[in-house]
Fold:
Amino acid sequence: MASSVCSALGTDKENLVGKLIAVEENHGSNGNFVLNCLIAEQIQKGGGVCLVALHNSFGHYHNIGTKLGYNLRQLQEKGRVESIEILKLLNGSLNTAHEDGSEQNILFGSEEDTVRNIFHLIEEKIKKILQNIKPVSLVIDDLSDLLCLGIPLKEVLSLLQYCRTLLDSQPGLSLVVLTHVAEGDEQQNLLTAGLCHVADMTVSICGLKTGQSSDVSGAMKVIHRRWDESAVAHEWNRQNLYHFKLLDRQVKVFAPGTASSFT
Amino acid sequence: MNMAVQQTSFQKKSKSRVPYIPGSKQSIQNAQLLVSSGVPSFDHAIGGGIPVGTVVLIEEDKYGTYAKLLLKYFLAEGIVSGHSLIVASQDSDCENLVRELPAPVQLDDSVRTSDSDDKMTIAWRYQNMRVVQSSPTSTSFGHNYDLTKSLDAEILKAADVCYWTGCTGYGQSESRFTNPAYYDLLCTIHNKIEEGQFGVAASPEKRNILRTAVHSVGSPLWTEETHVSSYQQKSDLALFFYCLRSLIRSAYAVCVLTLPSHLFQETSIIKRLEHLCDASVRLESFAGSEKETNPVYKDYHGLFHINQLPAINTLMSHVPESFDLAFKLRRKRFLIEKLHLPPELQETTQREQDDLPSLASGICGVQTRSILDF
Structure:
């Protein structure tokens, strides 16, 4: 289940409201499991989730959710979960390419308008869930995909900034943002640096340096910053390195060198 | 009466919600719908097959021969399974590519003489050991193809194949693409999905799968205008891949692209494209490299690198048994297998000391003739 990841992150002891968690996914690894585990925890706590799915479809999260013990589609009907699927919107904008004037047309129009439309969509959905339930977690799956959509770095960073303003204006909100970064990609590196600079906690996922292994899927580095509770205050700015192994229905987290097959 | 009601309330769970489509199977591990790539050992390496709704990137070898071959196998498998195809290329003639597709190997020619193996007796202590298999043998899903024969013209005529060789005239005055070719191809795929009712939401009477093959995407021949800067070309490619991902995800479709990655000056764009695809593999052919004459690789034609495997609808992706993979091409099969070093049978310079006349058993004599004393 998801609890091993959450206890490694320290999110089980801590109130997440008003915080920003950055998930940095290095090239050659898959950081999607962190989002799934955080969603699982939020739902277990009785909160709501607003999912901005840029890299995967909503069905992907639903299918993983059924393995981790929750049903996103049912929760969506109850109004506890909302999703914004950019992949679907994009399909729609290919469809309506010949007509014009559609508001959610991502592929056309200026980049600034696209970002503004996405933000308005997020804001609207969050207000909608917050009427039903608190706390709410806004999960953005792969912010760096906006760069691939041809949106300039400046605009992407300002979208992030706008989302952070929601933390203040909408009480009960927390933010989880994943971004992919490859070595040598200047834009992605700048975006990641900008995100980690404002984050309260950074989770960095990378593959093993020496190649792949069947016992360890990758390494996870957790850096805490600006935690106010005393429970984890001594962890301030300490880097905790873990190894993890992804399994079909759970994630195992352990200290480096203590994989089950080694002991 | 009451009892009967109670009994009926226990209902058998409906067996499969996924409709059966010819040429597809469900994964044993995660119930994912898979289609074959046309190369059984390729399927085995990436976890049983290509999941429906995913994009596979093949980074080409230096001369592009083997990558093109993989694309042909992928298309031939589609025709044999009765799937619909889209073939797109700017570098070569698509219709020619389809005409040259290899024919599947009939089962009776591929029966191998296993009798001779049975006669050999194995020492009793090895009898219970697992047979080491570096490549799968069962071919119930996917076929092997004979490169010397091409598919029947009649079968080809009956197949639903759509060609794209360049702009077909979709208006794109305001879109974000600087190169109209990419947008045009996307619209072609989109229209095909709509017309053939391949979308997830559509409900045709008979479900089928759309296979899209894009040959040498991003090669110099894709750039129409010379004044377009390399930066714009790069952002076009990433945007194209992202839109393609969204199209393929929303349909019963799979897409295989080959990318001449050695022609790109910057590696960062290739990494971005790898990230936007679900699976990405790289072929490294020995042709023209010094590895061609290396005795270690003499059984193989190239190395097969796995960069990324699909993790759609699951937490974990498939973990192959080995990442040291190599491929070899035979007339009737393309084999990807674990890289084995060849047995040392001939006398070579490195093994000189073994061939020296051995002393009588029981004496651990020191070879005084050897220069190096271990």
About this structure: The CA atoms of residues 207 and 218 of chain A lie 4 Å apart. Chain A touches chain B through 48 residues (CB under 8 Å).
